[in-house]
């Protein structure tokens, strides 16, 4: 509980205070010191012996985050329990407990820990509007304590140290750095990152972020149950290049951790030039845009580092075999060499081959560098580049492949390489300047001319068979 005490003279004592100030300068300095350095008792813990009410706050030990009650706007009567940054002037909410159950009457509202070691939020009528779904209550008879950490995580643990609930397992619209997020589990239902419904409405919106159920190697932004945007396929370790302000180079690294029956996502943000790393956060906004933000201590505002906000970022917007070219000033849909637009007035219909493939004939594999690879792939683990090439070239149904050597990446999932192959239309491709891979696309004989930008590889068809 954060309780601040300010030494102030009561109304009847004001004349006495003036007399003291007039008599002795030392007294003035002493009183000013007491007032200006009024002490705050900052508590990062909630116990069964106390409760949290509107106006109270928990503040993490390093004073990075605060937990308390807030309303989205000054005119709003809805009250929420949330976590926000404590040391910046712009209140930025990173987590909300009762986002879909706002409280309208603010009196007698309290957050408590019950005798059964559950954390419960009660409204003014004494009704439970939100509570923790503890993973275990073993040993809970001795009590529990909730702690707000400097990572922004709010943890409920038993007195024996067992964590029975934590806020990072129940995200809202924000991911904080160095936080391990459960994205897939065979033992439990995994939630998603869910955007706000509107700029001032924190209730659950239409857009969410979650793992691809058919593959544990990519995350999707979903619009309801439909794919809206797709993140890059994970190479176990992915590195984004970015800039903060105009002089400091920064690196964002994403990881997927495979723990047998569970899969975790995390990201780190590191500065190659030490200037006091600012706050960073990944936000999924109410419009379905996912972006990385830095806090700028000079302008005292949030700055977008990178964002998925263009038309091309929408899933399959360029159609089958089409790709979004992000290397242009304005991203635009294009066709690979050897393909042409199906309909120049409707780019979402995609591209078609200029020359049809014929099984048993020599086909080209054209190299497309700097690509975000397509969706709907098959994975072959721990093969060489030649084996990956052979796997695709000897099967007439294979339309493309890509290969990544992971032996030096130090990936947490333990694979030395990753071979992906595609047996159908190539959907949702992008040409980008970071996170790049070479994509090898099968073309019919003489479909393209040699040029300096794209490399052709002539590979014999060893056998004609399908996956």
TrEMBL record:
<dbReference type="Pfam" id="PF01453">
    <property type="entry name" value="B_lectin"/>
</dbReference>
<feature type="signal peptide">
    <location>
        <begin position="1"/>
        <end position="42"/>
    </location>
</feature>
<feature type="domain" description="Apple">
    <location>
        <begin position="359"/>
        <end position="448"/>
    </location>
</feature>
<dbReference type="GO" id="GO:0016020">
    <property type="term" value="C:membrane"/>
</dbReference>
<dbReference type="InterPro" id="IPR001480">
    <property type="entry name" value="Bulb-type_lectin_dom"/>
</dbReference>
<dbReference type="GO" id="GO:0004674">
    <property type="term" value="F:protein serine/threonine kinase activity"/>
</dbReference>
<keyword id="KW-0732">Signal</keyword>
<dbReference type="InterPro" id="IPR000858">
    <property type="entry name" value="S_locus_glycoprot_dom"/>
</dbReference>
<comment type="function">
    <text>Involved in sporophytic self-incompatibility system (the inability of flowering plants to achieve self-fertilization).</text>
</comment>
<keyword id="KW-0675">Receptor</keyword>
<dbReference type="GO" id="GO:0048544">
    <property type="term" value="P:recognition of pollen"/>
</dbReference>
<dbReference type="Pfam" id="PF08276">
    <property type="entry name" value="PAN_2"/>
</dbReference>
<dbReference type="InterPro" id="IPR003609">
    <property type="entry name" value="Pan_app"/>
</dbReference>
<feature type="domain" description="Bulb-type lectin">
    <location>
        <begin position="43"/>
        <end position="169"/>
    </location>
</feature>
<protein>
    <recommendedName>
        <fullName>non-specific serine/threonine protein kinase</fullName>
        <ecNumber>2.7.11.1</ecNumber>
    </recommendedName>
</protein>
<dbReference type="GO" id="GO:0051707">
    <property type="term" value="P:response to other organism"/>
</dbReference>
<dbReference type="Pfam" id="PF00954">
    <property type="entry name" value="S_locus_glycop"/>
</dbReference>
<keyword id="KW-1015">Disulfide bond</keyword>
<dbReference type="InterPro" id="IPR035446">
    <property type="entry name" value="SLSG/EP1"/>
</dbReference>
<dbReference type="InterPro" id="IPR036426">
    <property type="entry name" value="Bulb-type_lectin_dom_sf"/>
</dbReference>
